[in-house]
Write a structure and sequence with these properties.
about 110 residues; alpha+beta; Single alpha-helices involved in coiled-coils or other helix-helix interfaces; 3-stranded antiparallel sheet; 2 helices; 3 strands
Length: about 110
């Protein structure tokens, strides 16, 4: 039973990766509705199998409206006071991510 669960989680991670790749391709070809749908499916798979969205894809969707964010098209990206500021163009949700401070004791 445990091996099956591990296998399901592995398959779920692979599907989430593939769905985000497809979402990026669709967004680059200006098909944002399909990209949003791929993100929605990836989130559903993650919730069903208790798999986290990989960190590399975490910045590519809005935490409020769950739409795919493509910098310059569906999101505005700025650096302000040591923070990365991502603004969703759909719902105007602002996400602030602190940038790492430089190591002082090198």
């Amino acid at each position: 039973m445990k091996k099956r669960k591990i296998l399901y989680k592995k398959i779920a991670r692979e599907r989430i990766d593939r769905l985000f790749e497809l979402a990026l391709e669709e967004a680059l070809s200006h098909n944002f509705k399909r990209a949003d749908r791929y993100v929605e499916i990836a989130r559903d798979i993650g919730m069903k199998y208790l798999v986290r969205i990989p960190r590399k894809y975490n910045l590519f969707f809005c935490k409020k409206c769950y739409r795919f964010l493509l910098p310059g098209k569906t999101a505005k990206v700025r650096i302000n006071r040591g923070k990365l500021v991502i603004t969703c163009n759909y719902c105007s949700f602002i996400r602030r991510i602190p940038l790492k401070a430089k190591a002082e004791n090198i």
